[in-house]
């Protein structure tokens, strides 16, 4: 991982900085594959873990077979999403607030209007005359423990947590960012006022996998593009001539590793 470079061949991280990040910003149990994946995400979006724009945290969840596994995941806080937005040159502002609203909810087979806490976020771009707006409901995102109790952060900071979810989603929507999630969205914890991630251990035990589906239909679609796939240790990479196919490949959720010159993605 000592030669991570951007598209201009300028080193993103020096060898010394990479070693520092490995020692200080990864959990001790992180393996080389997880580190490589996390570095590739940081590289793709030009995010610096030392500046706390991206975090590498353990995430314990159930896989497709229902077994508990722990993997190191790259997560991005609000400041990380904002860093990407600012670097685009098109960011024109963000506004978020919350209010209690009456929303439709299905209860016992019937739709009813119920009161819920709603966080609203609007993100503005210089090249658009309309805001990118997201609304999220407390009842849909509040995290519960295995004993069906509200987790610590959602109990003590419900308004803050919900706004962070709305802000992350609105920024991702406005700048077409796929595969990046905040700790608040996944129920893992919170990025606090000092821009440090605090993990909610209760929520980690109760979090489901965000599935990156890798279906037979996808394989057939890739085959039609002249590509095949190789799967190894929770990752799949593309094999074949990918020239001129970048947009189509990105639509399937793949990321490009400039060091190894391969397209890959993590699968559940």
Automatic annotation (TrEMBL):
GO terms for biological process: DNA recombination. GO terms for molecular function: DNA binding. InterPro entries: Phage_lambda_Bet (IPR010183), RecT_fam (IPR018330). It holds the Pfam family RecT. This is Phage recombination protein Bet. The lineage of its organism: Bacteria, Pseudomonadati, Campylobacterota, Epsilonproteobacteria, Campylobacterales. The gene is bet.
């Amino acid at each position: 991982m000592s030669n991570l470079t951007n598209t201009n061949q300028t080193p993103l991280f020096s060898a010394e900085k990479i070693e520092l990040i490995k020692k200080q910003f990864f959990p001790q149990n992180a393996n080389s594959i997880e580190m490589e994946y996390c570095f590739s995400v940081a590289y793709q979006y030009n995010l610096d873990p030392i500046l706390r724009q991206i975090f590498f945290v353990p995430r314990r969840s159930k896989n497709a077979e229902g077994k508990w596994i722990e993997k190191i995941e790259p997560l991005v806080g609000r400041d990380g999403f904002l860093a990407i937005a600012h670097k685009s040159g098109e960011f024109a502002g963000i506004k978020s607030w919350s209010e209690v609203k009456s929303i439709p909810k299905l209860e016992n087979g019937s739709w009813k209007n119920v009161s819920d806490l709603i966080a609203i976020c609007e993100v503005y771009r210089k090249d658009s005359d309309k805001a990118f707006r997201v609304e999220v409901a407390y009842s849909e995102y509040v995290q519960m423990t295995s004993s069906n109790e509200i987790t610590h952060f959602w109990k003590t900071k419900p308004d803050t947590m919900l706004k962070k979810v709305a802000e992350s989603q609105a920024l991702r929507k406005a700048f077409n960012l796929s595969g990046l999630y905040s700790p608040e969205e996944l129920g893992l914890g919170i990025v606090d006022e000092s821009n440090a991630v605090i993990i909610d251990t209760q929520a980690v035990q109760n979090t489901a996998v965000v599935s990156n589906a890798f279906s037979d239909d996808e394989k057939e679609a890739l085959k039609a593009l002249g590509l095949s796939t190789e799967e190894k240790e929770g990752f799949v990479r593309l094999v074949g001539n990918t020239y001129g196919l970048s947009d189509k490949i990105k639509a399937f959720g793949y990321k490009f590793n400039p060091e190894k010159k391969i397209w890959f993605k993590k699968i559940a």
